[in-house]
# Entry
Amino acid sequence: MNADRHRRRPAAQTLVPGFAVPRQEPVGNEFGSVFDMTNVRKVTSGVAVAAFAAAAAVAVTPATSYADPAGHQVTYTITTTGNLTGSVRYINSDPPSQAAFDANSSQYMNTVQTAFTAGQPLVYTTTLANPNQWAFVNASGGCHWPDCGSGATPELHCEIAVDGQVVVTQNATTGVTCSTRPW
# Structure
C-alpha cells in the first residue's frame, strides 16, 4: 500500500484580513472526500438507535388475546344433591363490551325457571367467541317440604366446560356461580 495515500492532505491556507497569521481551512479527508467518517458514524448510530427503539417497543408491548371468530363450544352443567325449584342464568352470547352487558344484560343472558332433580344434570350449551371473558352460569334454588324436612340442605354444583375441557367448578347450598373471570 502506498504510504502517501494514508496521510492527511494539508489544509488550504487563506489570510485573515488584518492578521498576518494564515487561517487553516479543511478541504477534505485523506482521500479528498468532503465527507468525514464521523458523519457516517452519526448516521449509522442514529439508524441503529431507531431500529433498537422500534424492536424494544414491540418487545415491551403486551400480548393481546384475541377471541376466536369461529367460537368455542361452552357447556354449562348444573347438578344438585336434592330436589329444588329455582332458576339458572347463563351467558349465551358475547357482549361487545362490559358496558354493553351492564346496560342490558338480558340481551346476552338466558334465565330459565326450572325444577332441579337430585342426580339429574341440567345442561345448557352455547357458542362464545371469548369464553375466557364471558362464560358465566349461576343457579339458585329452594327446597320444598318434605324434601328438606330432615334438616339436610341440598348442595348445588356448577361446571363450565370449554371445547370439552372443564375449566371451572363450584359447590354451594342456596346458590352457586361459575365464571371464567371475577365479576
Remarks:
- The mean pLDDT is 76.
- Strands lie at 12-15, 22-25, 72-80, 84-91, 109-116, 122-128, 136-142, 156-162, 165-172, 175-179.
- Helices lie at 37-60, 98-103, 131-134.
